[in-house]
Design brief:
This protein is of the alpha/beta class.
């Protein structure tokens, strides 16, 4: 149902909801609260301790003007409760100042209580109504525009009454396992009476989502046991001799991965293998060995990379490692004449190995005898793109690689059709990057250090979570770029983000590698990028916004040369939870251990939220549920397929989910 058909949703409010990507009642009921206020747990300001999270009813008496401290904007509001005065301070949210009027409010947030002065830092707030409608557990929603908590709550309540909630899970399974009503779960998530009621409701909604998701994966993956079409003639001796082309000895993990690929290629079924490995563990060398097995047997191979920068780097490596084979390169920026030449040669079989970007997936790119596909950094490609690559050959063998680990237990579900190989070894010559959490008062010292290091020939990355930020809650890449240029005029800064054209991004990265710039201010597009040995410093702004695995990936951009490297984590929300997570990063360099810890700390809901995985499962990112929900959903999906329960309904829902997943990249 259109939002404007709901009671209380005006045209203006519909536009504000559109800023939150909510355009109908179904999307509105799936806009889950980010937190809840327990109205029975209001506290006296006299009793709060330092670092407590408190709900305080008080009177706002004065709003101070917005001030500046370095790069930070902040303002305070003066509050009073039973004759005691205290403050709430808001950092980098100057737009909020105009919303406050003198009156009664509820404030909820973490308390700083030092030397008897109580301060709430970036708290949630709302006017305290005279009729005191707020009772029990009250939902708190993310806001945009002129929306208030009361407006969102009222509109969600109207949407709940208007929506029909039909479960995709077959009725036989709902009855067999006594699974509760989906409609009741939605009402309970938005209007819970107790924490226990919310927990059960969140798990019920997550169960529905994962059942549909896993069913969609079954459709996407198809039959993993496709009969082998291509017969490889390469021998183990050939493979052993090929490994000598590399200037290093393969680790035990690399050798095990190569053995697994060789066994796959000489088996009766096609290979569908995921190769996971930490940053610098040698996945590329393993992939090139697999490519050798194909071309040595007389077939063609393709190496797909997510960016032109990485594709160009891989092309240079392929030419070096395969001097006795014909290697071609194809990207979106390749000249038209060069594209025609490469495509014609490829179709005639005059190119043995093609290296390229998404341009390889175009319909007019045809192979004579493609047998081996490598998809590098597979999380950067949508499912439909990976399928399009494998469809360019007759049942080709597929190797997808990822340096972004997810916990092993979850990989068994989401990569259920793939044989998963993990390279556990650490790079022998790679130094450990020293990681530090930088408080606000040390920001200027950090900049002075970076200025000295760049003068000595070192280079640095500055990474932000967003290109720009219309809410002012975090440091945006455009804002930081302008600030740094003003603060450090002697340092040469370059700007890089996802809205730039591929050619522009490639030019900036190549110039940075040539040391035409000292510092690169970027979004996470550099997570998968070119090796810059002189880059020894990684600065990550609002580090609490990222998952541990992604922080680890970003940290892996430095430490690639002989010099000691450093990773500085700047925290915008200095909460106890954020500090706990980031301190783990300081002491752990194992990406897989970090992914397991991240799941343990944040739970499945946060782990698969936008901070971890782009658009993946973003619909239920605010729900809190345990990993057991995912395994139960898989059990239900498997049983439904085995018993062929309501296949048409499941297929329709799964295909709808597939449409939303096929082009998603796990950022």
């Amino acid at each position: 149902m259109q939002l404007t058909l709901l009671r209380g949703v005006t045209e203006k409010r519909a536009k504000d909801f559109a800023k939150l990507h909510i355009t109908d009642s179904e999307e509105l009921v799936r806009y889950f609260p980010r937190a809840y206020l327990d109205m029975t747990n209001r506290v006296s300001v006299r009793e709060v301790l330092h670092n407590d999270v408190a709900l305080i009813a008080c009177r706002l008496t004065f709003v101070e003007p917005v001030r500046y401290s370095g790069r930070m904007r902040y303002f305070r509001v003066r509050l009073e409760q039973d004759g005691d005065f205290f403050y709430a301070v808001f950092f980098n949210m100057p737009y909020l100042a105009a919303r406050f009027k003198v009156g009664d409010y509820l404030f909820y947030g973490r308390v700083q209580n030092k030397y008897g002065q109580v301060t709430l830092v970036n708290p949630s707030f709302e006017p305290l109504e005279k009729n005191n409608r707020l009772k029990g557990l009250v939902p708190v929603y993310p806001l945009r525009g002129a929306l208030t908590q009361r407006i969102v709550r009222d509109c969600v309540a109207a949407a709940l009454k208007a929506e029909e909630f039909v479960s995709v899970i077959p009725k036989e399974l709902l009855q067999k396992y006594a699974i509760s009503s989906l409609k009741e779960a939605y009402f309970a998530v938005h209007l819970p009476e107790t924490a226990e009621q919310y927990q059960k409701a969140a798990e019920r909604i997550a169960l529905e989502e994962y059942f549909t998701l896993i069913s969609a994966f079954k459709l996407i993956k198809g039959d993993k046991n496709s009969a082998r079409q291509n017969r490889y003639t390469v021998t183990e001796r050939d493979v052993f001799n090929f490994e000598k082309r590399f200037p290093f000895a393969f680790t035990a993990g690399q050798q095990a991965a190569v053995r697994a690929i060789y066994d796959d290629l000489t088996s009766p079924c096609c290979m569908n293998r995921l190769l996971q490995g930490d940053v610098g563990s040698g996945k590329t060398a393993v992939a090139l060995t697999g490519i050798f097995m194909a071309v040595k047997s007389g077939f063609q191979a393709v190496y797909l990379s997510p960016t032109e920068v990485l594709a160009a780097q891989n092309f240079a490596l392929l030419e070096k490692i395969f001097p006795d084979y014909r290697v071609g390169y194809l990207s979106g920026s390749s000249p038209a004449a060069e594209k025609r030449k490469i495509k014609a040669a490829l179709e005639r079989g005059e190119i043995d190995i093609l290296c390229g970007t998404h341009a390889v997936l175009q319909g007019d790119v045809r192979f004579l005898d493609l047998a081996f596909c490598v998809c590098d950094e597979q999380h950067r490609f949508g499912v439909s793109q990976r399928n399009a690559l494998s469809e360019k050959g007759e049942q080709p063998d597929v190797l997808v690689m990822s340096a972004t680990p997810i916990p092993r237990t979850l990989s068994l579900i989401f990569y259920g059709d793939l044989d998963v190989t993990t390279i556990p070894d650490k790079p022998k010559d790679r130094q450990t990057v020293k990681t530090s959490v930088i408080p606000a008062y040390k920001y200027d010292d950090m900049l002075a250090y970076i200025a000295r290091e760049t003068k000595a020939g070192r280079q640095a990355y500055f990474v932000c979570a967003k290109i720009d930020d219309d809410e002012g809650q975090i440091t945006s890449v455009t804002e930081l770029y302008e600030e740094l240029r003003g603060r450090l005029p002697a340092v040469r800064f370059a700007l890089l983000h996802g809205r730039m054209k591929d050619r522009e991004k490639t030019e900036v990265m190549e110039a940075f590698k040539r040391k035409e710039y000292d510092c690169l201010v970027s979004t996470t597009v550099i997570e998968v990028g070119i090796d810059v040995p002189d880059a020894t410093i990684m600065v990550i702004c609002n580090a609490e916004r990222f998952g541990l695995s992604q922080l680890h990936q970003l940290r892996g951009r430095v430490g690639r040369g002989s010099e000691q490297s450093y990773c500085f984590l700047l925290v915008g929300n200095d909460s106890e939870t954020a500090r706990e997570r980031l301190n783990i990063l300081k002491t752990t360099s194992d990406g897989f251990a970090l992914s397991e810890k991240d799941l343990e700390l944040r739970g499945s809901g946060d782990f698969f939220g936008t901070r971890q995985s782009g658009k993946f499962l973003s619909d239920i990112k605010n729900l809190k549920y345990g990993t057991n929900v995912i395994f139960f959903a898989k059990k239900l999906s498997d049983e439904a397929y085995e018993r062929r329960l309501d296949p048409d309904t499941i297929r329709r829902a799964a295909m709808k989910k597939y449409e939303s997943l096929k082009d998603v990249v796990l950022n």
